[in-house]
Specification:
- By secondary structure, the chain is mostly helical.
- Helix 2 crosses helix 3 and helix 3 crosses helix 4.
Length: 109
């Protein structure tokens, strides 16, 4: 059975299994902290999520070694995965606002 199908069978559609080639505790921690809670990701996003974890771990380990192109790639991957608020807003998720209590008109009805 392919890895993607095992992931769906083992965890359900909304949980991605980490790739076997995640290296070190930092990449694994990033996967658990940011990718696992992203319920909108599917198994088709696994490779892209893996790339994001690798780049993010490298950035956290040595941010001065990152050039503008690497930062752009990190930001683009995060955006494509929906890891920033503006990209999630573009997904069309409806935001339900809490009702506003109108104290002035409360006694007029």
């Amino acid at each position: 059975m392919p890895q993607a199908l095992r992931s769906i069978a083992a965890h359900g559609r909304n949980r991605l299994s980490p790739p076997v080639d995640l290296v070190g505790p930092m990449q694994t921690e990033l996967w658990e902290k940011y990718i696992v809670p992203a319920h909108w990701l599917t198994t088709f996003d696994t490779a892209r999520a893996h790339m994001w974890c690798v780049l993010q771990a490298e950035f956290l380990a040595e941010p001065k070694a990152f050039n503008a192109a690497m930062i752009s790639q990190l930001r683009a991957l995060g955006s494509e995965l929906g890891l920033d608020p503006s990209s999630r807003a573009r997904m069309g998720k409806k935001v339900i606002k809490a009702p506003v209590k109108d104290d002035e008109n409360e006694f007029l009805t």
